[in-house]
What does this fold into?
Amino acid sequence: MLSVSDVSVSYGKLKVLSNVNLEIPMATITGLVAPNGYGKTTLLRTIAGLIPFYKGIVTIDGIRASQRISYYKKLFFIEDSSVLNPIMSPLDYLLLVKKAWQSGVDIDVVVETVRIGGFLRKPINKLSLGMKQQTVIAMCLVSDAEYILLDEPMNGLDPTNTAIMAWQLKLMREQGKSIFMSSHLLSNVDEITDQVVFLKDGGIAKLTSSGQGIRSSDTYQELYFEDEGLVLGLDVLAER
Amino acid sequence: MVALLIFDLKRLVKSKAFYVCAVFLVALVFFPIMTNQGFMETFTVKAYNTMWQSLYQSQDPASVYGKPDELIEIDEEIIDALKALIAAEGLHDNPGRLEAIIRLEKAQIKAVEQGFLDEWYGSQARVAFVEELSKRGIYEIHEKPELMPGSIYVPWSLSWTPYFLWLIPSLFVYLTLFMSGSDSRSRQTDNLLPINLVGMLCQRLLIGMVFVFAMVAASLLPAFVWATARNGPGVLNYPIVKAIGEGSGQVVGVGRPGDEVGSQAISGQTEFMSAGQYIIQFLVLITFASLFVGVIVMLVSRFTDNPLVPAGISVAIVLIPSFSGYSSLRLLWLLPLDLAPISYLDYQNVIGRFFIPGSPPTAFVFEQGLLIMIVSALVLVMIACIIAVVMRRA
It folds into this structure.
């Protein structure tokens, strides 16, 4: 289990996260929802150990980030596909991940599953956004890490690629992986996640589970749309 | 660690910047060779005067009188040599010119040995000699490099080359910095790999060194191939002069025992090493320098996400000691001269074929280096300010 206990993060005087507590069970997809600037990426980066100074404890199966190799073997996080080096190819990254994570996963099987064979050896800068996101997913699978963090993985994808991405995430869950992903695409969040975390004022404002039958868009409006006129306007637009 | 190393090597090989840099260095070294202007050797007027002064100081003034016949004889020898020199002027590859210089210097040595130092200083021959040199703007004696088989020549004597002497280390450091994954974006990916930090540090240093090695090889290879193609491969144990006489200056050059370098015969006092030893020393120097730069970059980049900061600091650290040659490095690091980090950057000494008794070659470029350092610092500050403003607006 990935456990976040009393985590607080500040950037100078600005407090971004305040006493966040969260547990992500095995073989689940957890959504992370909030408007821009509410600390979604900061929470993911804190779990990934990229925020050097924070209060609280983050553990994966009882292991803290200070036990570097054990911790990172269980975790896979790439903030977004833009961090991939543009001159390298998906294959280069898959080989790196396989060796670094000492994974037993067959790259050929992943390539076939994620359908990246057509651009496996092309440089990243020749790939579309969808292809890059597929590459990141392939890297997740090759790493065989148990916990996967994704920051808005469906951003900028067309409906076809969004559907492919959703299918791939479900596939990973079936393989026993836990996925913690931020997203603004609330309908997708409802479709694929087991639970949804809503961040507000630096803390967790609400945690819903798919069994409750609550639409994320409703929770979103309830939590973040303080202007009632805006809510009404959006409703009218939705009806049309 | 091996996984990341392989990945970074691929990244290096695939990078256009790597090849642009290599081509730039090759052009820098090779262009003057093709135009036949860059080969220079060795014996500057400054060095000549330094040598002369040191001889003067060693003389007993009481003995410097008398023997007018011998003085006249020596003076005639000098004038003859000077005439030969003037006759050979303008032909850099004229063997007579070098011969005339050697005759001239021999005559001077003879004058000193026989106690005619003061007379020689005031003599018509010396005045004429100095006037001739000044009139023609001669500060160096050129010799065809092809005479030396398999030797490596780096044309740093051109007027603009001191600037490149400072530019190239900067280029090494900047590119090593960016390509070894120390910039913040790449670092984020690397930092999430399940590899221990020491291994990652070693890997980054290693890849930085590979880059520096490759660049040095790229810059030297064409010149070496060119010289070898023209003159044959030479022999590996061809002796390289490490120091001449009492070691008054740092000297590295090519020669054999018994050869004459300027007025000094390479004698038992001279230290030699074989080309093999020289290459090993060179590799050791590069290794030390790369480690040194790599550690600085790594340490600094731990404290900032802005790649300009470690770049600026590491360049400053590389360049500042180079201004004053080796001496400051010896004081700072208490290392043997040959093993001092960064000293390989002093190409003039390490790679070039210099015989300059008296003063380290870096003395020639100190002022330019200082000026460039100040300008570079200003440029860096300006770039940092521009980036900061742009990022704030974004």
